[in-house]
Amino acid sequence: MHSKFLFILILIFNVPTIIADEVWNSNYGQIVYAKDVGVTAYWTYKYNGESGIIFIPGLAGILERRGNYEGYWAQNKSGTRCQYARPGIDDEPTYYWGKFHIQFTDLNFPTRWTALWSYCEETPSSVWDGTPEYHKLK
Fold it and tell me: What range defines the domain where residue 91 resides?
């Protein structure tokens, strides 16, 4: 009986550490580091009512000395339809995606970042900045 009660107390008081995702405010809304799949980090966001995802190969599990990474963003709809589909939200194919090149500004977690993005295969030139949302990290 005591072990069940103790287990419940541990679960209740550890909830904040279980849900401590890395979160940023950006010029395109809030970004959440959702999960790692293999070596790829999956970030999620919502912009103009559309959910989106950013895939960043090589970033998974890296908390210190983050550098530059090249990935891509994807949504179910956006301003430009690409010629071919890529995996998007829930790995469903989408024709609405683009390049995402990111550079982390600080050496250690949590860190600011600046990215350049584009539609489809265009050269990234639009700026996307992120600043840690500290109160979500506690």
Answer: 22-136
